[in-house]
Fold this sequence. Notes:
Residues 31-245 form the Neurotransmitter-gated ion-channel ligand-binding domain. The protein is of the alpha+beta class. It folds into 2 domains: 33-244, Acetylcholine Binding Protein, Chain: A, CATH 2.70.170; 247-303.
Amino acid sequence: MWHWSLLCVFLLVPLANSTAPISFEANPDTKRLYDDLLSNYNRLIRPVVNNTETLTVWLGLKLSQLIEVNLKNQVMTTNLWVKQRWFDYKLRWDPEEYGGVEQLYVPSEHIWVPDIVLYNNWDGNYEVTLMTKATLKYTGEVFWEPPAIYKSSCEMNVEYFPYDEQICFMKFGSWTYNGAQVDLKHLDQIPGSNLVQVGIDLTEFYLSVEWDILEVPATKNEEYYPDTLEPFSDITFKLTMRRKTLFYTVNLIVPCVALTFLTVLVFYLPSDSGEKVTKMDPPNSMIKNLRVIPSFLWHVACFC
Length: 304
């Protein structure tokens, strides 16, 4: 009987221990740092010591995917990472006082973030919709790279379709702060120049089956708006795209040229030739096949 009692003891001891409170605080230094930084932090106030001071925000884009270029509605849909960097003097600390912690990840909803929007947006979603975490450095430097899907208005020119090139612009800037409050600069911008030749990061770009990206420069601009005393700064990204023409060449251009050539050859046949009568007979005429071309172009226009 004693061995049954011993077995019960072994079974009940782990059960009793499982009901004891468990501490999930794996890094107390990080928790203490988080509480010290954000306990009295006001995310609605621009992080500058003096109200007349200008806060510099560095901006860059990483293009992940060119989702669609809609020629009919003149809209370009892109999947982007909006890379932003700025300094917040209220988010500095001494790593020696917090167990050597030099970096902290915090929800972006808990700190001040610049209200960068796409000015030439098409569908109404001007701002970033997914609020990812921001990275804080002990020096006060803040990094934030939220993903976003933008639909930007783009003036299309189909004069040389299908051998066309399209140029689309994406204009980003602060919706609230003027250039004296938030100065927008490109991440790769060098002093004395407002132009960056490679303004969009394409290292993780998924190649498009329909378009080739030729150029992606970026330019910093300053513009005055009605009833504003200070200019608003923005960064305009330019995307130059060239259509991949193999599909249209094989399925549209070559058949059109071949049918046209064969139709012209019909007139060189003898007048009493049966082949000529057959070719020119409306039910069997090759000219009838040309009627398919406008229908094909209509479907292409709807697809684009």
